[in-house]
């Protein structure tokens, strides 16, 4: 019974949907900041770079090592010694074995670099790598915000498309009913009736596509927010966002992240070049060593062993003279990389200024087109309303009514394209104006 209860409980929990409601794009951005897999990865890489700084500083600390060994001299090598040492005849030699069978060694060695430019540059490079990782976090956030804004405004666009489709469907139904009545009375031909029915079918398809596309936009948003397919997402937004004029938007852009990243990469290249040149500088280290050797003839019996201690300290100077030309090649290679990164930085600086100017121009153009498109859509809507009224009054033909309706439907696609272009520029300039 207990197992059955737990199984049912797990099944119920799996069916429970989490509810998420967002009232603005800003709320979506804030949620993604702490839940997106992309941001988690970027923060992890930043943390790894931070540990790299600790590792670089660790190279300045003394190194300490303890070693030990055990040797079993199964057979000691004989040595020729003068026989007269043992009372023999002068000029003759005899074989004797010297040493103990079991040798035990233990020692401790400590070393610290007093002068090591490579370690200093490693610290400097680690700090710059951390700065680059921080800029990559900002870059990831910038890209994620753009992706979220794209999904959000795509949802708004499809929502607007569905509103228009519902409006058109209502008109198509009324027009079809009117023409169907006239067809029954013998006032219109079958071509006009079929045309009205075709318009009705197309409008139903447009509405279905808009609803499906809204669902796709929400699914794309779930992916970016690291949500499951069962989670429910509700966007409480108006039919369309208000379109602020260019004068209502701040045109003071923060430094482009691509420029900051290019500058950081240039600094990394400069540090690598300096480090390569520093490889010619000698290294000075202080060394201390202490050890002891025990020698005996009995295995792990230390009563009659010889005790041979050793202890010393000193300074060790390492002067690199020749290493097959690898340092010269490394210095030349890093110099080329530095020159390249300097060019990339200068280019990105110029490109960022032009891109910002183009962004303003594009927004101004799409904003004007969007505002004008809304006015034209209202005029088409008014024309359609007038034509419908005149059809009922018998002032225009059915063919004229259908033509006006078709013009209204056709322009809706142009209008949605204008809205789409405006949305893209609007969220692009929104993200560009954020200071990360």
Automatic annotation (TrEMBL):
Keywords from UniProt, A to Z, are: Cell outer membrane, Membrane, Signal, Transmembrane, Transmembrane beta strand, Transport
Localisation: Cell outer membrane
Does the record bear Transmembrane in its keywords?
Answer: yes
Protein name from the UniProt record = TolC family protein
Q: What is its main location?
A: membrane
Q: Which family does it belong to?
A: Belongs to the outer membrane factor (OMF) (TC 1.B.17) family.
Q: Do you know which Gene3D superfamilies this protein is assigned to?
A: Outer membrane efflux proteins (OEP)
Q: Which Pfam families match?
A: OEP (PF02321)
Q: InterPro entries per the record?
A: OMP_efflux, TolC-like
Per the record's keyword annotation, is ATP-binding included, yes or no? no
Q: Which domain of life is it from?
A: Bacteria
Q: Where is the signal peptide?
A: 1-18
